[in-house]
Amino acid sequence: MVKVATYFAMSFGAFLFWQSMDRVHVWIALHQDEKKERLEKEMEIRRVREELLQQAKQKDSLA
């Protein structure tokens, strides 16, 4: 009976471990996606800012 209880406890423990690992992987993936989106937004802002600075320089040089 002890062997059956031990086997059940170990199986249940393994199940809980894999469930928690699955949640951790989902959490990591979500945070990586958020970080990637934030970096893409920052790059877009930087690109637009550079374009505006170039346009301002051209207007200043023409005036």
Structure write-up:
The protein has 63 residues and is mainly alpha-helical. Helix content is 97%, strand content 0%. The protein has 1 helix and no strands. It has one helix at residues 2-62. The longest helix is centred in the middle third of the chain and has 61 residues, at 2-62. It is rod-shaped.
What is the number of strand segments? 0
3D shape? rod-shaped
Let me know the average pLDDT: 93
Look at the helices and sheets and give the structural class.
mainly alpha
Specify Rg, calculated over alpha carbons: 27 Å
Q: Biggest sheet, in brief?
A: none
Unreliable spans are: none
- Order of helix and strand elements from N to C terminus: H
Outline of the structure:
The relative contact order is 0.06.
Helices, strands, pairings?
Layout lengths: L1 H61 L1
Keywords:
mainly alpha, 63 residues
